[in-house]
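Title: Comparing notes on inverse folding

I've been comparing how different people in this forum approach sequence design from structure. To keep things fair, I'm posting one structure and asking everyone to reply with a full sequence. Here's the target:
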């Protein structure tokens, strides 16, 4: 994977496409790079629960004090949130876009003044819970909010998991589309 955030001071929105096999590694690499360069990350997860990500990030040497989570899967999967959750807001389910939007806005406010990257993992997983139309509307809302607030954003997706119309719409919401598997090959 050759995608790099270094050398860019622009607040850009990226759509990163990967295979299902490389999605977890893409998440780890991106969050590691964000935090290692002194920035903060807000990880919006509909894919991996907070405890799993926290463990993975810790193993990778990622500074967890620089990572905040909006977790839309833990409550849905196990019915409760961990007692010792730090820097995390838990949404009831990936279907609850209103609460997810509020949690994102709240986290952005709490972190105001920091150089923030919002990492959305993953657009593809949301298709399990929502229609492409609803996902597109939500991603448009999030991307518009990030642009207005001058915050960088990264939307992770499994390329072959998106229908062509959704992929086209997502492409129009971001500044740059990067196929991680293609950039790794060439």
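Reply #1:
Here's my take.
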């Amino acid at each position: 994977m050759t995608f790099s955030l270094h050398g860019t001071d622009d607040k850009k929105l990226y759509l990163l496409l990967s295979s299902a096999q490389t999605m977890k590694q893409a998440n780890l690499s991106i969050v590691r790079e964000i935090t290692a360069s002194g920035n903060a990350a807000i990880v919006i997860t509909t894919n991996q629960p907070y405890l799993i990500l926290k463990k993975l990030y810790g193993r990778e040497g990622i500074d967890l004090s620089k990572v905040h989570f909006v977790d839309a899967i833990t409550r849905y999967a196990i019915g409760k949130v961990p007692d010792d959750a730090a820097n995390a807001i838990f949404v009831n389910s990936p279907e609850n876009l209103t609460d997810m939007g509020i949690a994102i806005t709240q986290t952005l406010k709490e972190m105001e003044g920091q150089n923030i990257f919002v990492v959305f993992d993953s657009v593809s997983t949301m298709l399990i819970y929502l229609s492409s139309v609803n996902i597109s509307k939500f991603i448009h809302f999030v991307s518009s909010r990030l642009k207005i607030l001058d915050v960088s954003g990264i939307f992770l997706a499994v390329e072959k998991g998106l229908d062509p119309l959704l992929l086209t719409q997502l492409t129009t919401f971001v500044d740059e589309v990067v196929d991680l598997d293609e950039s790794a090959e060439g």
